[in-house]
Amino acid sequence: MSIKNSTALRTHLCGDMRSANIGEVVTLCGWVGRRREHGEHLAFLDLRDFSGIVQCVVDNSVDVRSEWVIRVTGKVQPRPEGTVNSNIPTGEVELAECKIEVLNSAEPPPFPIDQRGDDVDENVRLKYRYLDMRRERMQKNIRLRAAINSAIRKSMESQGFTEVETPLLMPSTPEGAREFLVPSRNEPGSFYALPQSPQLWKQLLMVAGMDRYYQIAKCLRDEDLRADRQYEFMQLDAEMSFVNKDDVIAMISTAVIAAAKAATGSEPPPIERMTWHDAMNFYGIDKPDLRFAMKLVELTSVFAATDFKAFATAESIKAICVAQAQYPEQAASGRNKLDALTDRAKKLGAKGLVWLKVGEAGALDSPVAKFLSATEQVEIVKQTGAVAGDLVLIVADSWSITCSVLGQLRNDLGRPPVHQGPYRYVWVVDFPMFVGINPTTKLPQPGHHPFCHPHPEDIDRLESDPLSVRALAYDLVLNGWELGSGSIRIHEPELQRRVFRQLGISDEDADHRFGFFLQPFKYGAPPHGGFAFGIDRLTAILAGEDNIREVIAFPKTQSGSDPMTNAPTNVESAQLTELGIRLLPPPIK
Ligand code: ASP
Questions:
Q1: Which atom of ligand 1 is nearest to the CA of 452?
Q2: I want to staple 394 with a disulfide (CB 3.0 to 4.6 A). Which of 130, 239, 296, 319 is the partner?
Q3: Using CA positions, which residue lies closest to atom 1 of ligand 1?
């Protein structure tokens, strides 16, 4: 479908001017960009609309300034020899004999619009977001996002999914994140929660026989903001009936690949899979970044009979090799940097960090070398594949600490910025049902939300050995960012109660808090499963950005405020009274 760009006010778009238009008289509308005086009488103006910029040759008496809105009628002509600008698509032409109509004047903008804006303070960018978004970078990002959304919708619909909208005002649910609450006026003292995700609704849609549901849904979580987290974010949310995890993974992969193709023009290779256990064992993290190696190397058996005390009793001993060839600076770390790495390892929960610098012929330079037998030294070098100049880091601890500490050090030392290619997608499958025991409540802590189906082979151990139970849960990871997660759900009411009981939610409690959710499952819930992935994160990476703020039209700052609208703001006391709310004095800091 071709789009008609001419309107009552213009005949073409600025960015569309090419040599083929030479000789045409066109009328363009846009904002005044850079102006350069040219000789005594002439000036060059860049005219900008969303499609790009075009150079206009004007009389230098023309009084138009930066960001004024103008309408220009002129003749397209070739730029004189030697002045062609091959950096922009319109660089071969310019508009001459220009007649200018001012549609609106403008105050000088608080920052130049013709630059990327990396050096402008974040608060200032967001205070003037409507100007920030005029930039080419933001225009591209927001339109890329739309293209991704559109590709996802098309893909989901072609796979038989039906879009259903679900409520924003709902009861509080046990999905794990802190919720935003909305006070009820009709029932003072009662609150709605804004959805952390449409999880409950989509499962009810399966009971309702919708078979395949999707929605590009707004989700809200009151959690500290980071580069990959905003209070409000968009997810492709999907649920399907009569499926197993391979079905879900296949359908979501199809949508992600379609989105990636729409954004980059090329199709990523089929997405690989890895178990959660392997992800932890080899990358030390459940969202492994596969763009770089430095994998965790197993050394436990090397030290089975060691005399070195720190290694003798450890459950798990692993190493990473910081190769000089790839990481010359890190591999050559001096004493201060090595001490800082040791401190970092301790902060992350390890008892310590052993470092060894590999010299010629496998000689090891390390404060602990004298405690290691010759065979142990040879094996360290052999197993890690280290060569002269490399740095080997070893942690000895419980399996989970060894993995997580080395996984974090691996990321600290080797991880490229998230948006840097190549794109490495991976499905991480077979997550544990519970991730540990809460030291205060002594109850197992759920890995995902409590609706994930335990692995059928492990259900018998739900009560006797909960930490060994795998869930039919899976995550999709891209370049070390978790894009999303999903699972096959529990559709058997009794099994759901067993899981709730494990989490300390009694049957009465469950009926009281989630009766509306449990009740429908008595009326013939089909086996079902689903997934949700973050559109902001996917878009940011594909747009070459490392903060999701750059692909959201009106995001919040790191501290959760909006410098443009000043939200969150105080409200009239009458509004509070109506809601039955009286404020406590602010907490003393
Ligand atoms: N509702 C889950 C989430 O938002 C995803 C899912 O299990 O479908 O993380």
A1: 7
A2: 319
A3: 199
Average pLDDT over residues 358-373: 95
Tokens of 532: 């949700």
Task: Decide: 340 and 407 in contact? Cβ < 8 Å.
Answer: no
Ligand 1 pocket residues where CB is under 6 Å: 197, 199, 485-487, 530-532
Distance 485 CA to ligand 1 centre (A): 6
Residue 514 pLDDT exceeds 90: no
| CATH no. of 292-415 | 3.30.1360.30
Q: How confident is the model at residue 586 (pLDDT cuts 50, 70, 90)?
A: confident
The pLDDT score that the predictor gives to residue 1 is 61
Of 173, 216, 220, 235, the one to substitute when testing ligand 1's pocket (max ligand atoms within 8 A of C-beta) is 235
- Maximum alpha-carbon separation in the chain: 89
Cα of 531 from ligand 1 centre, angstroms = 6
CA of 530 to the centre of ligand 1 (A): 8
Q: What is the pLDDT of residues 558-570, one digit of tens each?
A: 999 999 999 999 9
User: What is the number of the ligand 1 atom nearest to the C-alpha of 202?
Assistant: 8
Tell me the per-residue pLDDT of 81-94, one tens digit each, with 9 for 90 and over. Answer: 999 999 999 999 99
State the closest ligand 1 atom to the C-alpha of 196, by its place in the atom list counted from 1. 4
CB-CB contact of 78 with 19 (8 Å): yes
* CATH number of 116-268+529-582, picked from 3.40.50.970, 3.40.50.300, 1.10.1760.20, 3.30.930.10: 3.30.930.10
**CATH superfamily of this structure's domain 14-104:** Nucleic acid-binding proteins (2.40.50.140)
Does residue 174 surpass a pLDDT of 80? no
In this prediction, residue 348 has a pLDDT band, given cuts at 50, 70 and 90, of very high
Residue 354: strand, helix, or coil: strand
Q: Could you report the per-residue pLDDT of 201-230, keeping only the tens digit for each? A: 999 999 999 999 999 999 999 999 999 999
pTM score: 0.94
Secondary structure (DSSP) of 146-205? HHHHHHHHHHHHHTT-EE----SSB----SSSPPPEEE-SSSTT-EEE--S-SHHHHHHH
Reported as a pLDDT band with limits 50, 70 and 90, residue 589 is confident
In this predicted structure, what is the pLDDT of residue 515? Answer: 87
Name which residue sits closest to atom 4 of ligand 1, judged by CA. 197
> Which alpha helices (DSSP H) does 324-483 contain, by range?
328-331, 335-347, 374-384, 399-414
Helix (H), strand (E) counts: the chain: 15, 22
What is the average pLDDT value for the chain, to the nearest integer?
95
> For the chain, what are the domain ranges?
14-104, 116-268+529-582, 292-415
CA of 471 to the centre of ligand 1 (A): 14
